[in-house]
Amino acid sequence: MVASLDLTDARTFMEHDPLEFFAEVRASEPVYWHASSDGRPGFWVVTGYTDVVSCYGASDALASGRGTVLDVLLRGDDSAGGRMLAVTDRPRHRELRALMWRALSPKVLGTVALKIEERTAALVEAALGPEPFDFATRVAEHVPMNTICDLLSIPDADRPDLLRWSKGALTGADELDSLESRNELLLYFMDLAQRRRADPGDDVISTIATGLIQGEPLSLEEVALNCYSLIIGGDESSRVSAVSTVKALAEHPGQWRALRAGDVDPDTAVEEALRWATPSFHFARTATRDHVIGGRRIRAGDIVTLWNISANNDERAFAEPRTLDLSRSPNKHVALGHGPHYCLGAFLGRAELRALLSVLARTVRHVEITGPATRIESNFLNGYRSLPVRFLPG
Ligand code: HEM
């Protein structure tokens, strides 16, 4: 069984249930070596909660600089390594993170959270009624992108392009499409970085463009890469979390009733929504030295993949993990990562889900799925590109 699923294939989880597969892996061989074909390297697969958490914490032995997504690592090194926050290691990572944190801390973002709720309410209210609609394209995709664009002070007219490129970059039709989308995003941000450096405002781009690391300003390309990382990091993951959350609520009427009745704490509900959605199947690292994980010897240079989807459904860490329980507490899931690279946008991601839950509970009486949801074809992004639903008001 363990060897039978190809984790490098974007279609694998369209055809196989990841939760069933990883439950078997955890029971039989929780850390295993996955061979690859076509001359590409093999890699380690880490599935148990405790091992995944300790790997995230062991950034000295497991580095991010070569890349953190399996596909990228199998093709070679990440071209943004050492320049973009998520793929930079200590000591530079620490300084770059502190700089970006200045623009993304909860203190700075307080007012942004209010706008999230307004935007979500307007989108949900416009979709209310007996007519089915696609929740993914009609509601979910407009909140995260606009929120990040607000932070970056992106003009309204440019936003549809950014959304298209962002979608293309991660889940484009093919490799060329993804590459073109990434280039468009980078060029766009380099231009903006140059203008904000000359005439700074109080937005995130200006903060990064005028900040210093080890006494030096970042290059325009580094500023652009880190703006791009906010879009990529914050758009897709939040969007798929929202879609998975609505799907989960429609499929669990008891939990939906509890939410509407105000019987669940909104904060615990958000954490369970995140655990349930687990928008990134995995993140990856490269071993910098020989290292033991779950009793297996990892060699320096080996690729190590950490399967969040498995850790978040590990029955040794979560009682009845396949039961949606919006009151689950404690709920120390790894949907937002763990350790030094813990999600920089966690506050925003949570605020978006919290707004969605509160708007739904307030304005919608009945949520119904009206057709099949379409899975995203990916071994990285876990979720649905479309979700036909009907929201009845009440
Ligand atoms: C890092 C998930 C929202 C920006 C991460 C990591 C995860 C994650 C798992 C760790 C990656 C690793 O260890 O290699 C999510 C989820 C979100 C979300 C599930 C929504 C529900 C956001 C938002 C932003 C953002 C809204 C930006 C506005 C980032 C950045 C990093 C990161 C910049 C890199 C941090 C570092 O390397 O120090 N995210 N994220 N994320 N996320 Fe998020």
UniProtKB/TrEMBL annotation:
Which residues lie in coiled coils? none
Record's Gene3D superfamilies? Cytochrome P450
Q: Which InterPro entries match?
A: Cyt_P450, Cyt_P450_B, Cyt_P450_sf
Q: What name does this protein carry? A: Cytochrome P450
Tell me its family: Belongs to the cytochrome P450 family.
Q: Which CDD domains match?
A: CYP142-like (cd11033)
Q: By its UniProt entry, which PANTHER family does this protein fall under?
A: BIOTIN BIOSYNTHESIS CYTOCHROME P450, P450, PUTATIVE (EUROFUNG)-RELATED
